[in-house]
Amino acid sequence: MLKSLISKMRSECDFSKRIKYRHAKFWNDPNGENVRNTIMHAYSPLYQWTDCENWQRRLSNKYNAREFAKMHGCKVPNLFWRGRDIDKVNFDFLPENYVIRPTIGHSCQSVFLMNKNLNLFDNKTYNLDQLKTTLNDSLSQNQRLEYLIEEFLPNENGEHKILKDYKIFTFNGRIAAILQINRISPKEGFQSCYTEDWQPIEPLVSTYPKGPYEYPPECLPEMIAGAKKLSKTYKTFVRVDFYASIFGAVFGEFSPTPILGNGSTRFASKLFISYWDKYCCSLI
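Request: output the structure for the sequence above.
Response:
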């Protein structure tokens, strides 16, 4: 009993340490932000993406991530606008439903799921001046930050609601687990967790309560294929996020250091360490 407990605690600690080590290697480097924020395109050859140490940092920029996904044949939301000068956005020509998200960030911070003037993420209404002020406040705090204005994907039923997140934990082309978040707000929702073939498994994170079993999305095979293809090029551990939409599986983003390794259950930590050691040995 004691040995088993020690083993579980050690695996949990090891996963967190690896993620924190990666974070330090990625972002304590003075060149880290230059790597992340050098804009790349889907037509750029792969050798240009991978021409520096820890090149995966490029994919922490959400514009680069969507271009990388396009290059690998994955669907991405339509892009209406990208940039820093919010005054240049012609909001009159945007559809009633659209998404605004920053190129840099995590945990859904500064993300707006707009249904006319209502942001579904915080359930607040914004007039145009309020929205611009909020966006410009974030831009003033980071000179490298840009915003993307994208299509608000309808779910598999054709509804414009907060989409379920499918967070796929991958290791050099192998899938360890899928975390489905049935989201209510950026920090509220329910989790259900599955294997690649959609067999239920224990909870993966401590940040969301366990929800009921849910049937797989119709586009699960497309998600699996896309995640594996992206992961194989990424080579080492990364969480690949997808959405299930009326158009099929649509890529969301890469998460190389999800919540800095914190919040993982002991079950998840042990599982992820075993996959990391087997399929990404010696890779950070």
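Residues 79-151 form one domain.
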